[in-house]
Amino acid sequence: MKLGFNTAIVPDLSLEQVLDLARDQGFSCIEACCWPPGKAERRYAGVTHIDVEGLDADGIRRIQALCSSKGVSLSSLGYYPNVLQPDREQGEREIAHLRRVIEASAALGVNVVTTFVGRDPGLSVDENWPRFLDVWRPLIALADEKGVKVGIENCPMIFTRDEWPGGKNLATTPAIWRRMFEDIPSPNFGLNYDPSHFIWQMVDYIAPIYEFKDRLHHVHAKDARIDRAKLNEHGIMGYPNLWHTPKIPGLGDVDWGRYFGALSDVGYDGPVAIEVEDRAFEGSLEKRKESLIIARRHLIQFLAG
């Protein structure tokens, strides 16, 4: 397995500076954020380390040369919109950009894209399903054509009032994954597996690794801590942000030995990207860099290097 990080935590650095940071801290890869340039409405979004809209042959060669010179590869191109949102016009823009990300991943030789499926939060899973198929069958057909694996992260995106009641990402549980992969059976359609989201959903985060081993195209390393006293106050029907906190690996409730043990059991040898959403380390660029050092120090014991 190759240890890297999602670049959303360092939006103030250029791609070259991110690659330098990765190299200097001992990481072998990065999950490069590829949002359209401009301001985003939510935290950790709107980060553009590779602008796929303006990516030409010269740009491709420059990025490939940069990665080669730094000794750091791209584990995936990451873009996490809600392509199934109720605003169809905005959704179509995001679908078009996601298509460009898939094409750029192929052109760069990365061949992996990490993203969300999306969801209309006001509709049930069944009510979302026809639009899911209408949007994702063509997207996966493009991925098949380009030889690109698409890894869907299992974050429910249901933390704040505007995301309720259903959340903004459909692909959140094993039951839904089975249905997804039955209806869109392409082997290029898979997961960007993140154990932290199962912690607060009260779901076993180890068993699905075995069942979906052939769908693990990319994995995240993020932790989460449940505050049991606050959970007892608000209950599981309260906003998750009232009783759970995202943490860097080693500072939450994930058993990383069991997690990496399961990944090694199923023969996973792909990238592991640290994702930092820990407010305790957000105060400055130096604190965010420190979060990567601490997280790497904890995880490297489970990896070869």
Features:
305 residues; 16% strand; 8-stranded parallel β-barrel; TIM Barrel; 40% helix; globular; 10 helices; single chain; alpha/beta
Task: Describe the model.
This protein is of the alpha/beta class and 305 residues long. It has one domain (2-302): Alpha-Beta Barrel (TIM Barrel), CATH 3.20.20.150. Helix content is 40%, strand content 16%. The protein has 10 helices and 10 strands. Strands 1-2-3-4-5-6-7-10 form an 8-stranded parallel β-barrel, surrounded by 4 helices. It has a two-stranded antiparallel sheet with strand order 8-9. It is globular and about 50 Å long. The mean pLDDT is 95.
Please summarize the sheet with the most strands: 8 strands, parallel, barrel
Rg to the nearest angstrom? 18 Å
Order of helices and strands: EHEHEHEHEHEHHEEHEHEH
Q: How large is the share of residues in beta strands?
A: 15-25%
Overall structural domain count: 1
**Low-confidence residue ranges:** none
Q: Average the pLDDT over all residues and give the rounded result.
A: 95
Distance between the termini: 8 Å
Q: Give the CATH topology.
A: TIM Barrel
Number of DSSP helical runs? 10
Q: Order the strands across the largest sheet as they lie in space.
A: 1-2-3-4-5-6-7-10
- Helix/strand-derived category reads alpha/beta
CATH superfamily: Divalent-metal-dependent TIM barrel enzymes
Query: Helix share of residues?
Result: 25-40%
CATH architectural name: Alpha-Beta Barrel
Quick description:
Helix content is 40%, strand content 16%. It has 305 residues and is of the alpha/beta class.
